[in-house]
Amino acid sequence: MRHLSPRAVLTGIGELKPQRRTQGVTTMELLMRVSAEAMTDAAIAPDEVDGLLVAPQVGETPQHVPATVAEYFGMQPTMSNMVDLGGASGPGMIWRAAAAIAAGQCETVLCVIGNHRNDPAPRSPNRNPAREFDTPFGASGANTSYALLMQAHMDAYGCTAEDYASIAAGSRANAQLNEMAIFYGKPASVEDILASPMVASPLHLLEIVMPVAGADAVVVTTAERAKSAPHPPVYLLGAGEKITHRAVSQAPSLTSGPLKPSMERALSQAGMAVTDMDFLSFYDCYTIMVAATIEDAGLAKPGQFGAWLRDNGGMGPDARQPINTHGGQIGFGQPDLAGGMTHVVEAVRQIRGNAPNRQIKGCRTSLVTGNGATMSEAVALVLGGDA
Amino acid sequence: MTDYSTLEVPGPTITDLTAPFWEAVSEGRLIIQRCGSCGEAVFYPRALCPHCWADALKWEDASGHGRLKSFSEIWKPGHPGWLPVAPYCVGLVDLAEGPTMLSHIIPADRPVKIGAELVFAPTHAGGRVLPFFKISDQARSST
Ligand SMILES: [Zn+2]
C-alpha cells in the first residue's frame, strides 16, 4: 500500500452540539471551546500546537483571521492560514496540515471551524459577479443553485423524487442514533420529506440542511508524536482537491462535479478502491450532492444512485457501505463552514471504533468528502486505521 | 402577465467594465463579449478572455436566442423582495453564442422543460430593465 509520506495522524477531535440560536456567544468562544476539547482528546497541551488552520468567519473577523484566533487562544504558531473552500474547508485543512508537517514547518496542527448564530448574523458585502448576474434575477442563495443542479440531474437520468428523498430519510434515520444531532428524536420518512413545502423545485424543505451554530476541530500531528495519544491512530492515506467554478451558471457540468477527480486522486494515493471503504462520509448540503457523489465515486452508474442505495441496504451502520452515520448535515445540522468537518470527525470516531450507538463493525477505512459553493470546490480524503 | 415593475429587489452591482451591457439592456438589446484572439464568446463580462487570456474582448450584438439547460420554480425566494411574484422561474440559458447565463424565465402557458428554446425578453423589473428570457413560440417541438 502506498501511503502519503510521512503519514500524518488525526489524533484529536472536538465537536460542539449544534444549536439553532446562540445568544451573544461569539464565534471565537465556540472555536476555543471546541479546540480545547480536541486537544484534550489528543492529550496535547496548547503550547505543543505550532500550526493553526482556520476558516473564514461569517460576520465576525473580516481580516487577519489566523492572527486574531491565535491571539485569542494565546498561541504563537509557526504556520497559520485561512482555508476558504466553503463546505470543503474542513477536509481541505486536513491535507494542508499534513503538508505543512511534511514541509517541516510545524509538528502539530490545530484545524478549527465554527460559527455562531446570533441575531442578526450579517453576511459580508458581496461584489463578485454572482451578485451582479445571479441576484438581480431572483436567484440569491444556495437553494436555487442546488435546485438547478437537481433538476438537470433528474431530467438527464429520469431519477424519481423518491430516489433523492431516500437520502434525506436515511440521514434522518442515522440522526436517531446521534444524541448530538439537531434532528435527534425526529425521524422523517420519504413520504414526510416529499410532503414538506417546495422551496425551489424540485427541492423540498426537508431535503435542505438546517443552518445551526456549532464548531468542529481536529488535531493533526506526526506518527511519532501520535504514539503517546490516548486513541488508536487514524492516518491520512490520500487526498485530492479540485476547484472548477463559483456560480452555477459557470459549472462545467450540472450532473458531475470536481469531487470525481478529487476522489480518484485520494483513492489512488491510498492505493485503494472505493469498494474498499468501510464508511462513506459524504458531504450533504442537499440530497443531490450525495446522489452525485455516489455516482462520481463510481459506486453507481449515472442516474443509478437510488438503485445502489436500495442494494446497499440504505445508509445506516448495518448497510453494506454505511453513509453519514452521524446523520450527515441533513440530520445533524449544518454549523456553517464547520459542516464539512463533521464528516471528518465522524470518520475518525468510526475508525477508532468508538462511535456511540452507531459503530460500524470492523471499520478501518473511510472516504470523506467536502464540497463548497455550487459543486465548485471539492476535497476528498482517505482515512484509515492500523490494519 | 406578471407585473415585475413594482418589485423592490436588489439590482445589479454595475462596474465600469459591465456598464455597456446594462446600457444595452436598458435599450432592449443583448450584447456579449467576443475575443478577437481566440474567437470565443464570453459571459459574464470580463477584462481579459478566460479562454486564452488575451486583452482582446469586444462587444457585439448577441442573437438573443438560447436553450434552457436547467430551471427551478422558486417558492421561497432568497430575497423577500421577490415574494409578490413567487412562485417564479429562474433558469440556466445556454446562449446560442456558447456561454451560459442565469436569468429569469417568464412563464409560458405550458410546462417549462429542459431543452426549451428561449428568446431574449427585456423586462421592466424593480425600477430597471433586466435581461429576462421567455420560452419561444416558434419551437414547441424542440423538447
Ligand atoms: Zn480568447
TrEMBL record, chain A:
UniProt cross-references to CDD domains, sorted A to Z? SCP-x_thiolase (cd00829)
> Start and end of every Thiolase C-terminal domain?
240-384
Molecular function terms, GO-annotated: acetyl-CoA C-acyltransferase activity
The record's listing under Pfam families reads: Thiolase_C_1
The record's annotation in SUPFAM superfamilies points to: Thiolase-like (SSF53901)
What this protein is called in its record is Thiolase family protein
From TrEMBL, chain B:
Any one Pfam family match given in the protein's UniProt record, by short name: OB_ChsH2_C
**Domain ChsH2 C-terminal OB-fold, first and last residues per copy:** 59-117
UniProt xrefs under InterPro entries = ChsH2_C (IPR002878), ChsH2_Znr (IPR022002), NA-bd_OB-fold (IPR012340), Thioester_dehydratase-like (IPR052513)
Q: Where is the ChsH2 rubredoxin-like zinc ribbon domain?
A: 22-57
Q: Under what name is this protein listed?
A: Zinc ribbon domain-containing protein
